[in-house]
């Protein structure tokens, strides 16, 4: 198959295959789809990618991606600056925004602590978080790291770092999802659900 796709088309397929969720076969299909729709899709996509590469940068305050600095979330005066939700990555910030349930500000760590991958505290945006908490009138920091070993390790480290700041430190609840059935849940989720149980009103 590699002999059939050469030159610029092969380069396009190879780059598309690097995207999350796209393997070689999906990348070939996507490349064909784009090339067949050169005027309506490929050219506008190329222009959008060029513009994004030139203008999209991490926000200097929270780490969100935006063409403006500070980002739109940080500039939004309707948000409560006393609440900071700490997330691992921009994708997590976007997921929380889709819920519409949080009206504070964010802080993107840029990953998680991982001894196996050689990621230490100095590789994450933890110092800048501590500085924000000390100077911005923050009253609560919500740790919204993933329920993985690295995510929980990172949450504990951040909590320890902020322990003497005087702010309330909370963490997202873990446990049973709405509509979930006990028989289909893993042991870790069931364990968190039991530990996080609350009395009925």
Q: Could you list some keywords that capture this structure?
A:
8 helices, two-stranded antiparallel ribbon, 201 residues, Helicase, Ruva Protein, domain 3, alpha/beta, Dna Topoisomerase Vi A Subunit, Chain: A, domain 2, 6 strands, 4-stranded parallel beta sheet
What does this structure look like?
This protein has 201 residues and is an alpha/beta fold. It folds into two domains: 49 residues, Helicase, Ruva Protein, domain 3; 95 residues, Dna Topoisomerase Vi A Subunit, Chain: A, domain 2 (3-Layer(aba) Sandwich), CATH 3.40.1360. Helices cover 44% and strands 10% of the residues. It is built from eight helices and six strands; from the N terminus they run αααββαβαβαβαβα. The strands form two sheets. Strands 4-3-5-6 form a four-stranded parallel sheet. Helix 7 links the parallel strand 5 and strand 6. The protein is globular, with a radius of gyration of 21 Å. The protein starts with 6 loop residues before the first helix and ends in a 6-residue tail after the last helix.
């Amino acid at each position: 198959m590699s002999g059939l796709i050469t030159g610029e088309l092969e380069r396009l397929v190879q780059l598309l295959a690097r995207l999350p969720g796209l393997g070689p076969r999906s990348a070939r299909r996507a490349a064909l789809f784009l090339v067949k729709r050169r005027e309506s899709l490929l050219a506008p996509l190329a222009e959008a990618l060029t513009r994004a590469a030139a203008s999209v940068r991490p926000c200097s305050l929270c780490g969100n991606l935006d063409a403006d600095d500070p980002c739109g979330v940080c500039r939004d005066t309707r948000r409560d600056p006393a609440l900071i939700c700490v997330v691992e990555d921009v994708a997590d910030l976007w997921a929380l925004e889709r819920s519409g349930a949080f009206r504070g500000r964010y802080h993107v760590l840029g990953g998680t602590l991982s001894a196996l991958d050689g990621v230490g505290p100095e590789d994450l945006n933890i110092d800048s978080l501590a500085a924000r908490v000390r100077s911005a009138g923050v009253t609560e920091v919500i740790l919204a790291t993933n329920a993985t070993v690295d995510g929980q390790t990172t949450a504990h480290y951040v909590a320890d770092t902020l322990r003497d700041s005087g702010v309330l430190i909370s963490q997202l609840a873990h446990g049973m999802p709405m509509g979930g059935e006990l028989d289909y849940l893993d042991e870790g989720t069931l364990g968190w659900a039991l530990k996080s149980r609350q009395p009925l009103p």
